[in-house]
Design a protein that fits this description.
462 residues, 11 strands, seven-stranded mixed beta sheet, binds pyridoxal-5'-phosphate, alpha/beta
Length: 462
C-alpha cells in the first residue's frame, strides 16, 4: 500500500520531525525569513525519507509564525495536542457532510459551535458551522443574509435584487469586500465608512449615508462591524451599529475573526458589548487558540438561514438533511476541522484558555508601557494584544524607510519578527503583536532592547 510498508519507521520519522519542531520554538534563533528550495519530482523515495525531507523543507522554508518571538499577524502557535488531534482526525477521515457518516465528529463540532455561540451571547436558538477560516465565514454570513432577506435571489439571482448597500469600515478585512464581489453585488454596493483616530468606524458618517439611502429608497443588506481590526485591533461601536442595522432592516454581521478572543477572557468581555445583538459572528480559533490553520467558524442566531442558503438535494444523500453540514455550509466533503479545537478546549477548558490569553494581553501591556517609556508614540485602541507605534522625535518617524529600517534591524538581530502597517488613512506605523502563547516576558524585553538599539543607530545615521 501507498507508504505503509513500515509504519514503525514512519512513526519514528514523524516523531523525530515533531520533536524537532517543538524544540525549535526555543532553539531557532529567530522566526526566520522563509527560504524555499523544494526538490522537484525525483525518483520514488522511502516514505520515512520523504517525511524527513518534508519536515526539513518546512523548517527552513517557513516564517515561524509559531515562534515565541513572532510579533506579527494573528496566527496561533499550534499546541502539540492540537497538531496530533489534527493528525488523528486525518487518519480517521470522518466525512462531515452527513451526520450519519460521522456522528462523533458532527457532535463534537455542534458542541463547539454551541459553546462559542453562547460565549458571544447569540441566544439559545443560535447555531453555525465550522469553516476553513474567516474568509469563508464572512462569505457565508453574506450568503445567509441574502437568502433570508431575499428568497427570490436563490432562484433568480441578482436580477431579483433591488439596489443594495453593504456597509463596513475602511479598516474592515478585505474578505468583506471579496464576499460582496463573490455574491455578485459588485464592490460598488459596498460603501466604505471612514474611521476615526482610533481606527473605529465613524458613526456620524454612517448615519448620514443611511439617511441618504432611506431618502432614495435604497435597501441595506448588511452592516458589518469589525471587532478587532487586523492592523491595530480596533473595535467598532457595536451597540450603535446594532441599533442602526435594526432600524435599516439590515443583517448585522460582526467580524470578530481575531478580536473575538476577548470574549473568552471574562474581564475583557465588556469590550465586545453589542456582539450579542449580531445576526452573525465570524470567529477564527486559528488566530488565537493554539490550533493549526484551517479552523474558523460562522455563528448565527438564524441557523435556518444557512439551510435556506445551502440545502441541495442529491439522490445519494439523506433527504431529511437540515442538520447535515453539507446542507448548511459552502463545502460538501470536508475535513474534521473542529478536532484540534476540541483537543485544546478539552485539555484546558475555557478557564485555562482565558489564563493563556490573559498572559498575552499582559505581555502586550508590558510592550506598550516599554515603548512609551522609550518615547515612541503608541496606538492601542483596545485590550487586544497588538501595539502600533512610531517615533515622534524624528521628522521621518512615520516614513516607510525609517520604519522598515527599524523592523529590518530587529529581524536581523534575531529579536523578533514585526512589520510595518499602513492604515486606511495612509499613515504608517510599526506593528508588534503578541499573537501566540509561547511568548515570554524575556522575549518582550529583548524586543524592546533591540528596538532601542536600532533606533539609536538610525539616529546616529549609522
Ligand atoms: C484574518 C482575518 C480575516 C480572514 O480570516 P482567514 O482565516 O485568514 O480567512 C477576516 N477578518 C479579520 C478581522 C481577520 O483578522
Amino acid at each position: 500500500m501507498i507508504g505503509e510498508e513500515d509504519p514503525r519507521a514512519l512513526f519514528q520519522a514523524a516523531t523525530d520531525a515533531l520533536t524537532r519542531w517543538l524544540e525549535g520554538h526555543r532553539a531557532a534563533a529567530a522566526p526566520g525569513r522563509g527560504a524555499a528550495s523544494p526538490d522537484g519530482a525525483r525518483d520514488p523515495a522511502a516514505p520515512a525519507d520523504v517525511l524527513r525531507a518534508l519536515a526539513e523543507g518546512l523548517a527552513d522554508g517557513t516564517v515561524r509564525t509559531d515562534h515565541p518571538r513572532y510579533f506579527g499577524l494573528p496566527h496561533a502557535s499550534p499546541s502539540l495536542v492540537a497538531v496530533l488531534a489534527s493528525t488523528i482526525a486525518a487518519a480517521h477521515n470522518p466525512q462531515l457532510a452527513t451526520t450519519r457518516h460521522a456522528p462523533f465528529a458532527a457532535a463534537v463540532e455542534r458542541r463547539l459551535v454551541a459553546a462559542f455561540a453562547e460565549i458571544f451571547g447569540l441566544g439559545s436558538n443560535a447555531g453555525g458551522v465550522i469553516t476553513g477560516g474567516g474568509a469563508e465565514a464572512n462569505l457565508t454570513a453574506l450568503v445567509a443574509a441574502l437568502a433570508r432577506r431575499f428568497p427570490a435571489w436563490q432562484e433568480e439571482g441578482v436580477r431579483a435584487l433591488p439596489p443594495l448597500r453593504v456597509y463596513a469600515s475602511s479598516e474592515a478585512h478585505p474578505t468583506v469586500s471579496r464576499a460582496v464581489r463573490v455574491v455578485g453585488l459588485g464592490t460598488s454596493a459596498l460603501r466604505v465608512v471612514p474611521t476615526d483616530g482610533l481606527h473605529r468606524l465613524k458613526l456620524d458618517v454612517l448615519r448620514s449615508w443611511l439617511e441618504e439611502d432611506e431618502a432614495q429608497g435604497r435597501k441595506v443588506l448588511a452592516i458589518v462591524g469589525t471587532a478587532g481590526t487586523t492592523s491595530a485591533g480596533a473595535i467598532d461601536p457595536l451597540p450603535e451599529l446594532a441599533t442602526l442595522a435594526e432600524r435599516a432592516g439590515a443583517w448585522f454581521h460582526v467580524d470578530a475573526a481575531w478580536g473575538g478572543l476577548l470574549g473568552l477572557v471574562p474581564e475583557e468581555r465588556g469590550a465586545l458589548v453589542g456582539i450579542e445583538r449580531a445576526d452573525s459572528v465570524t470567529f477564527d480559533p486559528h488566530k488565537s487558540l493554539a490550533v493549526p490553520l484551517g479552523t474558523g467558524m460562522l455563528l448565527t442566531r438564524h441557523p435556518e438561514a444557512l439551510v435556506t442558503a445551502f440545502r441541495d438535494r442529491a439522490g445519494y444523500m439523506p433527504r431529511e438533511a437540515s442538520q447535515d453540514f453539507y446542507a448548511r455550509s459552502l463545502p460538501w466533503s470536508r475535513r474534521f476541522a473542529g478536532a484540534p479545537l476540541h483537543a485544546v478546549l478539552a485539555t484546558l477548558g475555557f478557564a485555562g484558555i482565558a489564563a493563556e490569553l490573559r498572559r498575552s494581553l499582559a505581555l502586550a501591556g508590558r510592550l506598550e508601557a516599554g515603548l512609551r517609556a522609550q518615547g515612541f508614540a503608541v496606538l492601542r485602541p483596545s485590550a487586544l494584544p497588538v501595539v502600533c507605534f512610531h517615533d515622534p522625535a524624528r521628522p521621518d518617524g512615520r516614513s516607510g524607510g525609517f520604519l522598515q529600517g527599524l523592523a529590518g534591524s530587529v529581524i536581523a538581530d534575531g529579536a523578533g519578527w514585526l512589520s510595518v502597517t499602513r492604515s486606511a488613512n495612509g499613515q504608517r506605523a510599526l506593528r508588534a503583536a503578541v499573537p501566540n502563547h509561547r511568548t515570554s516576558e524575556a522575549d518582550v524585553e529583548r524586543l524592546l532592547r533591540s528596538l532601542e538599539r536600532a533606533r539609536a543607530r538610525l539616529a546616529q545615521g549609522a
